Amino acid sequence: MPELPEVEVLCYSLIPFVLNKVITRIVIYQYSLRYPVPNNLEDKLVGQTINTICRIGKYILFKTQKGTIISHLGMSGNFVIKNKNHIIAKNEHVIIGFDNFDLCYIDNRRFGLILWTENDPLTHKLLKNVGIDPFSDKFTVHFLWRSLLSKKTNIKQFLMNGKIISGIGNIYANEILFISKINPYTVSRSIPFEKCQILFNNIRQILQLAIQYGGTSIRNYIDAHGISGSFQNKLKVYGKAGHTCSMCNMYSLVIVKINQRSTVYCPYCQK
Fold first, then answer.
1. pLDDT at 32 over 80
2. Could you confirm whether 3 is annotated as catalytic?
3. What mean pLDDT, rounded, does the chain reach?
4. Where are the domains of the chain?
């Protein structure tokens, strides 16, 4: 599933194409995504200008004068810029057309979504409980510390709780805990403040580095230009179970299931 860095990269790659551009047509080939695509989307959008594109957690918002398109990539979704007369690809479900190009939503597994709201999007049921953004000024060491103290869950589950901190999924939770030398089973409220400071810095460091490398492309993630990310080449633990730990160069990385998600860590470095 695309996480914060992939959504951020995609969002920024879309801006030069669609910002301040007028929507000229809407074509819907598949209405059945995670939630049904609104059947009045064409009436709402044709003639509207995309005034703002932004990311909220793992959501991308396209704002117009009348309202906002709320989109989520789900497990395998993507927006790709194509020529107007392009051959329709398999699993190409929605086309948002402009004068000289099409913005195409492609989703093999159909777990993503494209919705419409004319209200404040932050009050929408999907967005109103999204947690604080790791790059927000409100995300501070003391916010993280207070949040840790309030939870009895393990730290891996804490990091992936999008109602506390938005955008961190399985890949980056593994990487953040590894460089922070924190065992993924550690109870959140038991982490000392000194370790909280390290965790805070590494959350931002790992996510920012992933953005710089265009995100992680393990399966089918690409940006709007069709370019894959390369952060998968920098991963230290995710997908590397059985490999020798790059930190201690002694122990093999082990894999366990925590809350049904694969978790890889070093039993020596992350005691």
1. yes
2. yes
3. 94
4. 4-123, 141-265
**Is there a contact between 51 and 20 (Cβ–Cβ < 8 Å)?**
yes
Q: Is 192 a catalytic residue?
A: no
Q: For 204-234, how does the pLDDT look when each residue is reduced to its tens digit (9 = 90+)? A: 999 999 999 888 876 666 667 677 777 889 9
Span 56-72, pLDDT tens digits = 999 999 999 999 999 99
Residue 215, pLDDT score: 87
Instruction: Tell me the CATH architecture of domain 141-265.
Output: Orthogonal Bundle (1.10)
> Rounded mean pLDDT of 112-120?
97
Active site residue 110: no
Catalytic residue check, 194? no
CATH 2.60.40.1930 for domain 4-123: no
Selecting among 63, 189, 240, 261, the annotated active-site residue is 261
Angle between helix 170-179 and 193-212 (nearest 10) = 130
pLDDT of residue 2: 87
Out of 3, 6, 8, 175, pick the active-site residue. 3
Q: Which of 6, 8, 44, 58 is catalytic?
A: 58
